[in-house]
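hey
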């Protein structure tokens, strides 16, 4: 049932609509109760979407920073050139790519603008999770969150005009794989326990931020999210899908704006672009 949590708002809206139709057709009091119950579930889901929201306040002297995060789909190599065009045109300071083996052919081209990376031959032989940066990646490391998510968690530190910013990228297991999803979030939380200063986490979490384990994770790590996260999956649902790809930040990194890439470029996810301001601790 864990995956159903991500669809709470969608299910509640459908239940409210069905109850309303039944009330009109059958005039039974039970459907009044069901309609009210469904509307309460809608309100609860909307309330949870508003939790852990950034204040989007830019401190004096803070520095701008842009991040792009995109699960490109490993079988999507035919669109590698188009994806590379989009990544380069984004003017992002750093890029997280999930299932990056689709971009193997364009890595030399990307390295001209993003000379620093971890993943795809740097730090690991696999080409799954990839972190690209215009600035040097210090203390960069990549590892596994579980037997399911091998080589799918990376951390590094970069210097943003004198401020040390920690970057973290993750690709989590599906939430219906027993307790793997919650356990992987716990391991990310442990990795952050020694992080001091601004922190940005992004990637494919395979779960909406209103899921119980995601809520617990955000509460424990003090990470903040956009007021309304754009839907990234399934692409067929467009804006009516759910946000399972996320970008979070912890002060003094402040998330100011989050947008979805306009085209999925052959992937089964939409990518995200986030603008931040980074202040000194």
């Amino acid at each position: 049932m864990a995956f159903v949590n991500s669809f709470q708002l969608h299910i509640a809206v459908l239940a409210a609509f069905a109850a309303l139709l039944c009330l009109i057709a059958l005039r039974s009091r039970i459907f009044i109760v069901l309609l009210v119950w469904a509307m309460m579930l809608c309100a609860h889901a909307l309330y949870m979407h508003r939790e852990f929201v950034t204040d989007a306040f830019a401190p004096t002297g803070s520095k701008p920073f842009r991040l792009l995060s995109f699960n490109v789909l490993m079988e999507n190599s035919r669109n590698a050139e188009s994806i590379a065009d989009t990544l380069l045109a984004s003017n992002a300071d750093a890029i997280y790519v999930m299932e990056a083996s689709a971009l193997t052919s364009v890595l030399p081209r990307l390295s001209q603008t993003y000379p620093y990376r971890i993943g795809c031959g740097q730090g690991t032989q696999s080409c799954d999770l990839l972190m690209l940066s215009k600035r040097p990646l210090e203390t960069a490391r990549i590892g596994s969150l579980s037997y399911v998510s091998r080589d799918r968690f990376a951390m590094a530190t970069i210097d943003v005009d004198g401020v040390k910013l920690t970057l973290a990228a993750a690709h989590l297991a599906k939430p219906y794989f027993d307790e793997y999803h919650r356990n992987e979030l716990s391991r990310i939380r442990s990795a952050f326990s020694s992080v001091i200063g601004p922190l940005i986490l992004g990637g494919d979490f395979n779960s909406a931020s209103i899921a119980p384990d995601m809520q617990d994770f955000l509460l424990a790590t003090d990470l903040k999210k956009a007021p309304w996260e754009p839907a990234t999956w399934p692409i067929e649902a467009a804006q009516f899908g759910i946000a399972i790809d996320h970008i979070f930040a912890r002060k003094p990194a402040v998330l100011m704006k989050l947008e979805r890439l306009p085209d999925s470029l052959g992937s089964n996810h939409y990518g995200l672009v986030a603008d931040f301001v980074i202040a000194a601790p």
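The first helix runs from residue 8 to 26. The mean pLDDT is 94.
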